[in-house]
Design brief:
The protein is 55% helix and 8% strand. The protein is of the alpha+beta class. Strand 1, helix 1 and strand 2 form a beta-alpha-beta unit. The mean pLDDT is 97. Bound molecules: glutathione (GSH).
């Protein structure tokens, strides 16, 4: 069978989610660690975002679409459950995380530390202070979401969890994020439990890239 290729830097949370999906389904894959907007990525993603994906003559972009393909083509545990309610709950949490929480936690909070726009490149304290109320509110929402079963959707590990865990891994590396997660007891337990999974351990990213 053709090789599965995941194209994009391993520091990307979306790349890591797709790698975790392959690991969970035991799909061998090759990682091409290239930056967004590089020619290899632009050839597949119209806006140059990572991950891009290739499997034989199938080229795809967008992590959620890639997960659908992996579920359809490869055996192993389902990333998005077939049962309608669980499928919808999985979609719901992927959508909420990608449309709201990614912006707060990664594009704003994390980037204020690792890619600050300050003149001396020190952490952007103003942005960090401004985003904190949203960050804390969203952590509380997630805490509530995992309180009952220990998963975002139903009682099993789905692509919704694979999509969230790489984000939490970054948030907890910085003091305000670490404090927010530590104070959210269900979410803290969720992170501790699922970060022990092989799919998570095998995809730990290297330090942020220097461009
Ligand atoms: N909706 C996309 C989002 C992908 C995305 O935003 N990737 C980031 C890296 S984490 C990226 O390529 N950013 C570069 C840019 O937006 O120009 C997906 O689910 O794959």
């Amino acid at each position: 069978m053709a090789t599965v290729e995941i194209i994009g830097i391993p520091q990307s949370t979306y790349v890591r989610a797709v790698r975790m999906a392959c690991e969970e389904k035991r799909i061998p894959y090759e990682l091409a660690a290239v930056f967004p907007h590089s020619p290899e990525v632009r050839a597949i993603h119209p806006f140059g975002k990572v991950p891009a994906f290739r499997h034989g003559d199938v080229e795809l972009c967008e992590s959620r679409a890639i997960a659908t393909y992996l579920d359809g083509v490869f055996p192993g545990p389902r990333l998005i459950p077939a049962e309608p309610r669980l499928a919808a709950e999985t979609e719901q949490w992927i959508s909420l995380v990608n449309s709201v929480m990614d912006r707060t936690m990664i594009r704003t909070y994390l980037f204020a530390y690792i890619m600050p726009k300050t003149a001396d490149r020190s952490p952007d304290r103003q942005t960090i202070e401004e985003v904190l109320p949203d960050l804390q509110k969203q952590i509380a929402v997630l805490d509530n979401a995992v309180a009952k079963t220990g998963y975002l959707a139903g009682g099993g590990f789905t692509f919704a969890d694979m999509n969230l865990l790489p984000i939490l891994a970054y948030v907890r590396q910085f003091p305000e994020g670490a404090a927010a997660i530590a104070g959210a007891t269900h979410l803290a337990a969720y992170y501790e439990r699922h970060s022990a999974r092989l799919s998570f351990a095998n995809t730990i990213p290297p330090p942020p890239p220097q461009r």
